[in-house]
Amino acid sequence: MKFSNSLFMHPRVDNKLPKRKTLEREYSGYTSYIEDVYKYGQSHVFAWWNEITPSEKKSLLDQISSINFLLIKKLFNDAVLKTTQARQGILIPPQVIAVPKHDTEKEIAERVKHIGENSLRKGEVAILTVAGGDGTRLGISGPKGTFPIAPISKKSIFQLHAEKIIAVQKRYNTRIPWYIMTSKNNDSSTQKFFKSHKFFGLDSQQVYFFTQGMLPVVDLNGNLLMDSKSNIIMSPNGHGGVLVALKEKGILNDMKNCGIKNIFFHQIDNVLIKIADPIFIGYHLKDEAEISLKVVKKCHPEEKVGIVVYSDGHLHMVEYSELSRKDMYANSEDGTLKYNAGNIAVHMINIGFLEKVYQMGESLPYHAAMKKVTCLGEDGGKIDPKENNAIKFESFIFDILKYVKKNVIMEVLREDEFSPLKNMEGENSPASSRQDMINLFGRWLQNSGVPIPTDSHGNVMGLIEISPCFALDQEELRNKVDRHLQFHGNLSL
Ligand code: UTP
Hints:
Blueprint lengths: L19 H7 L4 H9 L14 H12 L3 H13 L9 E2 L10 H19 L3 E6 L26 H16 L5 E5 L4 H10 L10 E5 L2 E3 L1 E2 L6 E3 L2 E2 L1 E3 L4 H8 L2 H7 L4 E6 L10 H9 L4 E7 L9 E5 L2 E5 L6 H5 L11 E10 H10 L5 E6 L3 E2 L5 E2 L6 E6 L11 E5 L2 H4 L12 H18 L15 E3 L8 H7 L9 E3 L1
Parallel strand pairs: 2-3, 2-10, 3-4, 11-19, 20-21
Antiparallel strand pairs: 1-12, 5-9, 6-18, 7-8, 10-14, 11-14, 12-13, 15-18, 16-17
């Protein structure tokens, strides 16, 4: 990580600070926390103490009492020392179940599908959606899941996922609990959205919200940043925070008590997600895997996607920035990219395995990321930075891979299963996600005998939307659609 001097020095506030002894006397319940603030050089958080109201004072002190100052200092120091370098040691590509091409491969997948379907029928699978991220790159005011993404109906991402769950339930005559991880920043708006949309037809009792942990955001000198005179900026502690939250909030026990054996994990923003894919579940169960992963082939050697490899005898997700140029371009004997298993963050996770990890007492490491964060300047005015001015600390779920002994890695087609909504414009934007959905529906229709015109890039010319409640996949569509249907540029089923 490269550091320059902080663009925004923390306020030179010494003369404005309240006397530490006075503070400690007046708020004796918070003495040890106030001590920490001074001990770790963060007293500027009191810069506006004399201007804020008593309830704001209390809220600031409560916030301070939730912060592990020692941890933040350590994470900042680690970030300063860290230089991005290529992962050392030999990387070995993992075994991947390829997308079935021939009839025999398709027959195997069909047989494996029955295993997954049985487990779904028995109610052994829960859905876990991580939706706690701030979605800063997309930049909308509400949670990312509320974004109206469907090409014609403009249904939200949450609604699309909910309807897929309803369709799977109907197909297998089962009930699938849905666990949604939010953060303090978006929990109440997420829950409100579900309530105001009547849980999109799901039983409200089967949807469980839980919040992840938060960590303060620091500037490039390690100083806590504030966005108001009484509020320290906190951000969610990464999707890896789900591991601690599942345990601390008693969710894992709840799941076990309901007979859940495995979790289908996915990220909120993949609009093509095949929720509770029975083939994936089937492979995971057949091989008694602790964790299973779906991967896609990289588009090109320099694509910024993490790849799954073995290194030092363990499974790892190696980030794009950690791959040496030689490894990035390395080819296998058949001329294809050697390190080509791009992680799309769709997993099956065995509950017993998670318990084993908890018993080991291990925790996931934190990674530091430079970000542009709007904050208060030393004069108390808002600063909208043009360059990175802040560091956020996050743990990543894929760091759990190094504890995995038995896994399944299954390749899927990107165009069928992976289109994440990250940015407002360009790559991974609403426009590209909608086009990916339209193209998928177009292929389903075409393969069902309905001609669909495409342009020279293979994009469908027009709008198509197929509700998960009408058809969850191509097979179902083929059985339902009228082959004589004519596409006139706008079709909603
Ligand atoms: P991203 O890393 O893409 O983050 O998260 P994001 O919040 O969606 O977007 P940016 O980086 O701020 O622009 C991938 C997935 O992990 C979840 C997100 O909600 C998304 O589903 N996530 C991320 C969490 O649940 N918690 C976090 O702390 C971070």
